[in-house]
Design brief:
heterodimer, A: about 170 residues, about 75% helix, extended, B: Helix Hairpins
């Protein structure tokens, strides 16, 4: 046990994993506990940035950059715009304590179920070949094998953003 | 303890926190943010399996890129709906969004 723990805490990857995991979980828990909406968004941006660090640790550099650009950049700023354009009650005290408690019990039960399922499973892994250039490998695969999903996704993005503009437009003109 | 187990457990913790936030928070922006947190947990699982899974390959990273794109579209449509509803009702509380219930 102690030797396992010692080996876990002395290799660089698990130590970095531990640091990033603590940052991620504390950001998410702070998001649940803060009372002001802007503080919640900022702490979740913190979580998104730490997740990008974890992706670098998993040898997925391109996804890490996309995570910083899309989540920590675009999504967080869009959320702050949404907060600024609507009015929020400054203190969100729980008006439904029984509902919250029941939800907490349900979520904890789900987590216990997941925990035992994960502990019992075994993952026989093989060697991972990230390629010498992660971005180049992803680009080559995306424009040969996955070109049809890629084009479908661009169509879906266009439709979604045109729909968003029409929804948010004023109707009195 | 294997490292993949830790990654998947972290994904499960993130998913459960996001689920709790989505079910209990009253502000619609925070509900959207909690759904983003759940999507991020899924992305973390995909990338962990793309390195440590049974057949490690780069396909998991491509799948998570698609996932991030869908999440961005979802946030844009969600914020647009939120602003339209706020203009109509003057509130951004999810408990007020029950006009089809009556």
């Amino acid at each position: 046990m102690w030797e396992n723990l010692h080996a876990f805490f002395t290799t660089g990857e698990s130590l970095l994993f531990l640091v990033f995991a603590i940052l991620i979980i504390s950001g998410a828990v702070l998001m649940i506990n803060f009372t002001k909406v802007v503080h919640m968004v900022i702490s979740l941006a913190f979580t998104f940035l730490s997740l990008a660090g974890l992706y670098v640790l998993l040898q997925a550099e391109f996804v890490a950059f996309v995570q910083v650009l899309i989540y920590a950049g675009a999504v967080t700023i869009l959320m702050i715009f949404g907060i600024m354009l609507t009015r929020h009650e400054s203190n969100e005290e729980p008006r439904r304590p029984l509902h919250d408690l029941l939800m907490a019990v349900g979520v904890l039960a789900l987590f216990g179920f997941l925990f035992f399922a994960i502990q019992r499973a075994s993952f026989p892994g093989g060697p991972f070949d990230p390629g010498e250039d992660n971005t180049r490998a992803i680009g080559e695969l995306m424009f040969t094998q996955y070109v049809i999903p890629f084009e479908l996704l661009s169509l879906l993005l266009t439709v979604a953003f045109v729909g968003a503009i029409i929804l948010a437009k004023r109707e009195d003109e | 303890m294997n490292l993949i187990t830790s990654y998947i457990l972290l994904g499960a913790i993130l998913f459960c926190i996001g689920l709790y936030g989505a079910l209990t928070k009253r502000s619609a922006v925070i509900v959207l943010l909690s759904i983003e947190l759940m999507l991020n947990a899924v992305n973390l699982n995909l990338i962990a399996f793309s390195k440590y899974g049974v057949q490690p390959s780069i396909t998991g990273q491509i799948f998570s890129l698609f996932n991030i794109t869908i999440a961005a579209a979802e946030v844009a449509v969600g914020i647009a709906l939120l602003i339209a509803l706020y203009r109509l009702r003057g509130s951004s509380d999810v408990t007020d969004m029950d006009s089809t219930k009556r």
